[in-house]
Design brief:
heterodimer; A: about 210 residues; Arp2/3 complex 21 kDa subunit ARPC3; B: about 260 residues; mainly alpha; 10 helices
């Protein structure tokens, strides 16, 4: 779910870089407010590399398989480090395997990073909003929401960008129908991503709870 | 991960290899954006010719480009293959239910042309500049320290963690994982749980390793105001050749933008 070079007009690419610039500035500002930001950098960096590697894990659905994006999980685990982590991960992907692109790096980072920050806030709100739920159900529900919405919103942005920017000759009705059809098609993927995030977060909660402190 | 050969051709000798990393980065990215602005089909051959000329000057083998283009090329083909058959009103030909439409074909040629040109420039940049030098160039152009340090550390441990995952996956397979036949279009909950634990273990191992890395970095003075400097310095004074190349590429970028504006009128 990366937009490659050459698909989007330069204005959209530039707007993507502007949004990513603001989101990165905001994330770095929040990171610098932490008591010891330098101590967090090696952790965030190695986890960034681990997420990049873990995104190569496929869920088998015979005869095919489902590729996970993990941006919601990134938000849940890394907090404000999620946006720089996604930016770096996408930069590596563009350079190493040519997945995504240099001109579309900004728009891809915004598309995946902003839902990741949203997933972080959803997960962090579990203690304030989900008081009526007992543990570990509360953590499970909010991690599912974080994982599913992280991918769901990113998929919606991706589809809207692709469909509204490629063929200028498509009429508005056809565009709306295409967005709707493809969005519905992504619902099962968002559910799979949500379930995987829940399983992983509940595992981390049992084994290494400090990883979920954000 | 196919990344081991990232720096295979960076030590060759060519004008593009000798180009100052900072000027190369700024010029090539500017040209990429100029390419992204092109919407007139008549400019596509010019764009491709510019990219091919720079690639020729870089002395990189064609096999490098072919190998690197294959994966993203397949991805973009899957995205644009339906355009000539579905978009537009002008019919160029019809074979049964298949209809080739002019507007869709033009959109495909434009997208593929831009894609090939921009990617070629990206591979020139990557193929002629060591990754760490590129990172230093980005840092000297104002990349925030946190981002630069994170990129550097992630890159340092990326291949190590990938090897760790491969070892863990092999251990799982040796213990029988993936041997049981699954029903079509069904997700096996147990398999998913095992994969989630695999990813979780990878995160925990990386997290624990990061603690050791941080302690080692602290002992060497990290966090006391000094910057991590690795690879070739990007701050060296650019040569006349570097400035000339940058001027030529930036002129080409501006010319493309002007031509695009004039053709649109």
């Amino acid at each position: 779910m990366h937009i490659p070079d050459g698909i989007l007009p330069a204005q959209v690419c530039a707007a993507g870089y502007a949004i990513t610039g603001v989101a990165t500035w905001y994330s770095l500002r929040q990171i610098n407010r932490k008591p010891d930001p330098a101590a967090e950098i090696p952790k965030a960096s190695l986890l960034t590399a681990a997420f990049f590697v873990a995104s190569s894990i496929y869920i088998p659905v015979p005869p095919a398989s489902v590729h996970l994006i993990l941006n919601g999980l990134l938000g849940v685990v890394l907090g404000y480090f999620a946006f720089p982590a996604i930016l770096i991960g996408l930069f590596f992907q563009a350079l190493v395997i040519g997945h995504g692109g240099i001109t579309t790096l900004g728009i891809n980072a915004a598309m995946m990073g902003i839902p990741a920050l949203l997933a972080y806030h959803i997960f962090q709100s579990r203690n304030a909003v989900g008081k009526m739920l007992k543990e570990p159900t509360r953590t499970g529900v909010f991690s599912f929401l974080g994982g599913a919405l992280g991918l769901g919103i990113a998929a919606l942005i991706f589809l809207a960008l692709i469909i509204f920017n490629i063929p200028a000759e498509l009429n508005a009705g056809a565009e709306q129908a295409a967005v709707l059809t493809l969005s519905v098609g992504h619902i099962p993927l968002a559910i799979i991503e949500g379930i995987f995030t829940t399983m992983l977060v509940l595992f981390l909660r049992r084994v290494k709870p400090e990883l979920l402190e954000g | 991960m196919g990344a081991a050969n990232l720096d295979t051709y960076v030590h060759r000798e060519s004008v593009i290899h000798r180009w100052s990393p900072r000027l190369k980065l700024v010029s090539l990215v500017a040209l990429m954006f100029a390419f992204a602005m092109v919407r007139q089909l008549t400019l596509v051959p010019w764009m491709l010719a510019l990219a091919a000329t720079l690639y020729g000057l870089s002395g990189l083998p064609v096999s490098f480009l072919r190998q690197r283009l294959s994966y993203p090329g397949l991805f973009i083909l899957s995205l644009v293959v339906v355009l000539p058959l579905t978009v537009g009103d002008t019919v160029l030909g019809q074979w049964g239910w298949l209809t080739l439409r002019q507007e869709g074909l033009q959109a495909t040629l434009l997208i593929v042309g831009r894609f090939l040109s921009i990617l070629t420039l990206g591979f020139i940049l990557l193929g002629t500049t060591p990754f760490l030098t590129l990172l230093n160039a980005m840092r000297s152009l104002g990349l925030p320290t946190i981002l630069a340090d994170m990129t550097l550390l992630s890159y340092r441990y990326l291949f190590e963690i990938a090897t760790m995952l491969a070892t863990m996956q092999q251990a799982m397979r040796l213990r029988g994982f993936g041997q049981r036949r699954q029903r079509w279009l069904r997700i096996n909950g147990q398999v998913m749980q095992q994969l989630a634990m695999l990813a979780g273990n990878l995160l925990i191992r990386s997290y624990e390793q990061s603690d050791r890395v941080y302690r080692a970095m602290r002992l060497r003075g990290y966090g006391y105001g000094g910057k991590i400097v690795v690879g070739q310095s990007a701050a060296a004074q650019p040569s006349t050749l570097s400035w000339m190349l940058a001027a030529a590429v930036l002129t080409a970028a501006v010319s493309l933008v002007i031509a695009e504006g004039l053709l649109r009128l």
